[in-house]
Amino acid sequence: MSHPTKIVCVGAGSYSFGLSTLVSLLRSPVLKGSELVLVDRNEEHLEVMFNLISWLNDAWGSQMRLSASRHHHDALQDAKFVINAIEIGPREGLWESDYTIPLKYGVRQPYAENSGPGGFAHAARNIMPVLEIAWDMEALCPDAWFINFTNPMQRICAAVHRHSKIKVIGLCHQLGAGYAMAGKALAADLGIDVPLNFTSTHASPKYSSGMAATALQALEKIKITAAGVNHFTWMLAIRDRLTGEDLYPLFRKRWEALPDDFEPLTRRVFDAFGLFPIPGDEHLCEYLPWVSDSQTKPWLKYDLELYEWHDHSRERDDKWVELEKATQTRQNPADFIPTFSEGALEVIENIQLDSDFVWEAVNIPNAGQIPNLPQGAIIELPGVLNADGASGLVVGPMPEGIAELLRREITISHLTVDAVVEGDRQLALQALLLDPVIPDMDVARQVLDDYLTTYRNHLPTFWP
Questions:
Q1: In whole angstroms, what is the distance from residue 165 CA to residue 142 CA?
Q2: Bridge partners, residue 224, by sequence
Q3: Per the CATH hierarchy, to which homologous superfamily does domain 6-173+324-392 belong?
Q4: What is the pLDDT of residues 191-218, one digit of tens each?
């Protein structure tokens, strides 16, 4: 039985999240006959995506009522779900700039996407455009759920929660890295075939197919319970999905037997703190104080690779050409079915169905599920999906050393969000001074001033 609803996808031109999410929605029997509005300010990408989705809607008999808009304000009236995947661009170009600006002042951050000085700049550019959507939702669809994919996840969701009345759920697939690493460690025990190219969790095409294949096999056989904040979660339990057997002792033994050069930073952190960090070295390194020292250069010791900005940018451009061609030639619709779900489908379906379905990683405000993290902070943990939305499962307190690392990230996140909304340079400076990558107060000021000047057009609240 279908449960039609109105869904607005803002940033529908996102190749990373928009395509797989939209295709998943089209293929849902539960959502058959729903209204789906695609929104993107990139007119060219919006047209390509709308033409593709229109064709697939007909091919699959989804009976979706489709429309497209250049601005979210024209689409939000009476929406029940608003999926957000916007990104102030050019994504790779700005990301690389976020990395290179601090280098001028002797600061080499390890990844520059979600934490560190780059995490501040990345969040600062996206917070106000996201809040414009949330504030318009207050007037046009105040009871709708805001489903967020935009990074930095924790900071974007915190902005919506702290500065609007809109209900927010953040979704991220990084738990898959934990499944991939666990699958590699337990491969012989579980009968998992690990491709030869899965030698790192780094976000590179040379590793990604092997990592995904391993994760998908592991997902069928084991269940991981993880909690913390996005891209910085920790494995609290790992069990056999069929029997419920506790696999943590076996996993620990098998992990220690893997080659030392496989995720060496994860290995050291696991050993020091006693819980396995989920995200893989390249995301994990953003939140730690021990990976950016200019004297010891620990990024060499841990072989931390930078994001391949130019390769990913070129790949993205090529994908859009392929999408347009596929729509024109009407290739096999089955080619577009994603191998895994990003989670928006499950959230929407199970809120509609009031089904008490558990999704293993939702980003929602802490309502005591992790009592030694701040109340109201955005945490990532398993959540129950039903008509009330997403309710996090109680996981209890984190070990105190881990909790302190998480609390610092949460504090930096809140300072960043409030600084951007209020245009408060003092709060922005505090956010950088608390960051483990920043070694000196003068350097913090220099990096902040350079970011604010370089991105002046993207940061209007700081320039009255």
A1: 8
A2: 238
A3: AglA-like glucosidase (3.90.1820.10)
A4: 999 999 999 998 888 898 999 999 999 9
